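Batch job 17 of 40 flagged for manual review because the log was empty.
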Amino acid sequence: MRLGRLVWKFFFAFWLALLLAGGAVGTAVWWHHQSEREQPAGEDDRLLAGGPRVAVAVRAAAAVLGRGGEDALRGFLADVDEARSPRLLAVDETGREVLGRPVDPAVLAQARERAESDGPRRGARRVNDLDGKAWLLFVPAEFEDRAGAFPRPPGEPRLPFGRRGPPPNPWLPIVSGLVASVLFSALLAWYLSKPIRSLRWALGAVAEGRLDARVRPLLGGRRDEIADLAEDFDRMAQQIQTLVGAQRRLLHDVSHELRSPLARVQAAVGLMRQDPAKLDVTVSRIEREAVRLDELVGQLLTLSRLDTDRRDTPREPVDLIDLASAIADDARFEAHALGRDLRFEGRGEAEALIWGELVQRAFENVIRNAVKYTADGTFVEVSALADGDVFRLRVGDRGPGVPADELESMFEPFHRGSNTGGASGFGLGLAIARRAIDAHGGAIHALNREGGGLLVEITLPLAADAPQKE
């Protein structure tokens, strides 16, 4: 697989960061060690050892001599010598070493000179014992290996203090650090770029029309911002798939609904040509079908404008209870003409910023739908009230009701219930009502009433900044 540019950016960024961090730490450690080491000023200073370890040994010997005297020092040095610690020498003012070991005059002269210095970690020190006798404590830079402990082949030079073999290869830690940083940077770059490649694949799939492409299942148990982005993409793809599917169904339903009246118009025209005497009847038939087609096209335009026109139209303050009361009064006249009645109950005030025409169309479709399906001699119950920050409109009828499995699908475009009794209509009224209510962040649902009939409830938030459903 070809690596993208983002992978290389991640890789080199992490690698450079690791190299800089490792170099900074290594430099700090090196300077720290350099500060702890005492670097002699002249060529003769190389005769004495220095550093923290030597300073500790000298201080320990000085403490033993100051508290236990010459005998205690002799035992201490013997133990140090057996432990293969630094070869610490103790020389009195006459030049005699406490254990009788030979002392190089040049080393002794350098030790006396260093004992006079005031360095923080001196490698030589003058100490008086309990009897007031002065001693010089120091460690030579080179010492003989212990007999039998580290046998040295003939001709091999003596090793400096603290060395037991050849110096380590300086390239070993450098190469190890480079290899480790390359592997770590490559792994981290791959880990960060892999979900981006998956997201790119999914975008390409959606662009090709495969709307079922999803990214989140490809990321496994990942939990970070990239996984959140993948979930957002999946929600977007799901929404697009739903909308495209709905539009396809709508196009299919529209074509089916238009075909029936057009077929009847064509049949009327053919009948008129065959028998001109039936001109009045066929013209009336064509006129009815034209009105039906006009009504269908009008409702389709209303449904489409719910997603477009409202974006450019400002909201206006409307009292929802007054709006529902006015629509109920108009519907009451229609109910009386059908031998039915309508009762309205409204309490309080419920003013909200809304698109008035959309909400009016939603209320009107629901209430007129109830008047259409309620049984003769019954009445439709309409109640409107403000419940805190929510407005509620309940519309109940005494009609045949709706099967339980159709309570949700009845709000889909062109849906006609199985028990409508052949009532006229296109099945767009409740779909328009739902789209209008959703545009205001509200909700609409239906349930069957006890004793028969249907109850539809609309809820609308009264807050001006209510979220909208797209």
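Reviewer: the log was empty due to a logging misconfiguration, but the result itself is present. The two ends are 39 Å apart (CA to CA). Unflagging and moving on to job 18.
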